[in-house]
Design goal:
Layout: H1 12-18, H2 55-68, H3 73-81, H4 87-99, H5 105-118, H6 123-132, H7 141-146, H8 149-161, H9 169-181, H10 186-194
């Protein structure tokens, strides 16, 4: 038996309009397609960013950016230029931060070298990664020279294909292509794929 005190059907659209979509548990959301509304897109909107920064505000923002992670000089310039009033001011500020060692391409290069080596990348891929950040590879020239790339290439080859020395030309070619793609020099690659397990 229906209760005359309650309406037979609820007008969900009217309820939704009344509460201006503020309730995330609005009943209509369970039964209807999403309705285009600003309220439904708050979570998708990026956090408000500072705009038109100059002077101390721009400097403060630069420090805030650098406390989160290391930036190359080129990347920091582009990052700050997005929110600064004047690009020339950004260039002067970044030069100053670099002189005072708050920003350092040297540190970024060392971090990238360590990270790329952990990922099994050879010297050629590492130099390309540095170039993409507009960092001079000469900053870590000594570290590149001191790294045993023969050993790096061999360990990567063993991890991917095992310690067995392949005789089949197609399999050898496959290993060579893999190590070349990873950025190793051909000399290190040949040594890696021909090295026997008991050789040191």
């Amino acid at each position: 038996m229906s209760n005359p005190k309650f309406p037979k059907m609820l007008d969900y659209a009217a309820i939704k309009q009344q509460f201006d979509d503020s309730s995330p548990e609005s009943p209509s959301e369970s039964f209807s397609a999403p309705i285009e509304s600003n309220a439904l897109h708050f979570e998708d909107d990026p956090q408000p960013k500072p705009k038109g920064l100059t002077g101390s505000r721009l400097r403060s923002y630069a420090f805030a950016v650098l406390t989160r992670r290391e930036y190359s000089k080129a990347d920091l310039i582009e990052k700050l230029a997005l929110y600064a009033m004047d690009r020339d001011e950004v260039l002067k500020l970044v030069d100053e931060l670099a002189r005072e060692n708050y920003q350092s391409d040297q540190r970024v290069a060392e971090i990238m070298l360590s990270s790329q080596k952990r990922k099994g990348k050879g010297p050629n891929r590492i130099k390309l990664a540095l170039k993409s950040k507009k960092i001079d590879a000469s900053l870590i020239q000594e570290e590149l020279k001191e790294t045993d790339w023969n050993e790096q290439a061999y360990q990567l080859k063993v991890k991917k294909y095992g310690a067995k020395v392949e005789k089949e030309p197609k399999l050898k070619a496959k290993q060579i292509r893999f190590l070349m793609y990873r950025g190793f020099e051909i000399d290190a690659i040949i040594k890696a794929i021909t090295r026997k397990e008991d050789e040191f």
